Amino acid sequence: MATLEYLWLGRVGYSDAWALQRHLAAARARGAIEDVVLLVEHAPVYTMGRNGSAAHVPRGAEHLLSLGAEYVDVDRGGSVTFHGPGQLVAYPIFQIAGVFPMPGEPGRGDVVAHLRALEEALIATVAAYDVVAMRRPPYTGIWVGEEKLAAIGVKLASGVTTHGAALNVSTDLDWFGQVIPCGIEGAGVASLASLGVRPAPRLHDVAVRFATELARVVGRRPKRGGEAVRGAVAEAAAVPV
């Protein structure tokens, strides 16, 4: 069975992780590495996607900065969201045509299938902690009732995916109250901790479980990142692995 590599990198600055994604995506596009999922935690940061609006940040970016968070405009889909301590962030670097091929269209990949696979893996991950989550069309991510437990926003360029999914494990949800998360009026936000999971699981453990579930969903065997991807990370001078 083919493998899906993953790397748990721990706490990484958002800008460093974004630069690392671009570096690895270029390496994946030229075939220097295999598909890999980066698994990280960030310090407090708000990111605004391509489909966002200033109205989704009611008190403005300067207010968010005054709270001690970063604010970054990014090139993924979606609107504003928060990343911070206690949240698992997963960045799949996939050559999408190889993972989600479009029938009858050689060389093209199915981005919608990619989104649905991330959701399925997230749903299976939280189920391991006795949390029942589901999809809520037309929105992406996974939900418990009207509370969003995990958000998704991706980018596809040169046939390779970047950005990905963020799952609230023990995140301080007050951060989300400063914005309209994902631009969805009236929606709440949840974490495994807020849903009663005790004790809160270690982020590393949730990361490995998610990587395992995503590998299953795409029909691969999970494997800790090998020499090639570790070399590419080191080459980017981003973080030790």
UniProtKB/TrEMBL annotation:
Q: Which GO terms describe its biological process?
A: protein lipoylation
Q: In which pathway does it act?
A: Protein modification; protein lipoylation via endogenous pathway; protein N(6)-(lipoyl)lysine from octanoyl-[acyl-carrier-protein]: step 1/2
**UniProt-annotated site: Lowers pKa of active site Cys, residues:** K148
Which residues are annotated as active site? C182
What this protein catalyses is: octanoyl-[ACP] + L-lysyl-[protein] = N(6)-octanoyl-L-lysyl-[protein] + holo-[ACP] + H(+)
Q: Which HAMAP family match?
A: LipB (MF_00013)
Recorded GO CC terms: cytoplasm
Spell out the subcellular localization from the entry.
Cytoplasm
Query: What NCBIfam families would the database entry show?
Result: lipB, PRK14345.1
The further comment given in this record reads:
In the reaction, the free carboxyl group of octanoic acid is attached via an amide linkage to the epsilon-amino group of a specific lysine residue of lipoyl domains of lipoate-dependent enzymes.
- What name goes with this protein? Octanoyltransferase
Q: What class of enzyme is it?
A: transferase
Please list the residues that bind substrate: R76, G77, G78, S79, V80, T81, F82, H83, A151, I152, G153, G164, A165, A166
Family the UniProt entry places it in: Belongs to the LipB family.
Q: Which UniProt keywords apply?
A: Acyltransferase, Cytoplasm, Transferase
Entry's Gene Ontology molecular function annotations: lipoyl(octanoyl) transferase activity
The EC number(s) attached to this protein equal 2.3.1.181
Cite the BPL/LPL catalytic domain residue spans from the record: 31-222
A Pfam family hit:
LplA-B_cat
What species is given as this protein's source? Answer: Candidatus Aeolococcus gillhamiae
